[in-house]
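Quick one, tokens below. Sequence please?
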């Protein structure tokens, strides 16, 4: 039984890492590399169009990454079983923190990608002060989102060294 499960566990771990790399790595790459270059190289109207296209493309990759993380994360939770939670251990506390951070990051990602971003796209044509304010709000919350996502990754690393 265990011999049959090990390849599946390895695959699920790989899937989890792939999802995290795609999601968090994509978030960091766009924020630290792509957007700063766009700000310096393109006029505002061209930049807005390119940022919108990048956002649409990243949402598709993000959805695939979330699917990988959900499937593999649920598998890992099931594989850990109730011993991982009761009695409360360092592993359980770290896992609870990781899940809380995931909930916060997903909430911000949904707001950013599906509420604020599309609203900004509709507002940009008017070049209003409200659009500029929304842009600043999005940038602020995306930075918070990225920091929280790094916290999720840190918790994942801690879970590897804190067996239940």
């Amino acid at each position: 039984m265990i011999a049959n499960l090990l390849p599946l566990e390895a695959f699920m771990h790989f899937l989890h890492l792939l999802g995290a790399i795609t999601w968090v790595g994509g978030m960091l790459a766009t924020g630290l590399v792509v957007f700063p270059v766009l700000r310096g190289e393109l006029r505002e109207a061209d930049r807005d169009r390119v940022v919108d296209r990048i956002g649409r493309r990243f949402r598709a990759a993000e959805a695939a990454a979330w699917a990988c993380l959900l499937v593999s994360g649920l598998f890992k939770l099931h594989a850990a079983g109730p011993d991982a939670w009761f009695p409360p251990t360092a592993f359980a506390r770290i896992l609870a923190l990781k899940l809380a951070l995931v909930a916060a990051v997903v909430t911000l990602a949904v707001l950013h990608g599906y509420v604020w971003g599309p609203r900004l796209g509709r507002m940009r044509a008017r070049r209003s002060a409200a659009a500029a304010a929304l842009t600043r709000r999005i940038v602020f919350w995306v930075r918070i989102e990225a920091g929280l996502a790094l916290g999720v990754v840190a918790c994942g690393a801690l879970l590897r060294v804190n067996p239940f």
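The helical segments are 2-41, 44-80, 90-124, 129-161. The chain has one domain: 2-161.
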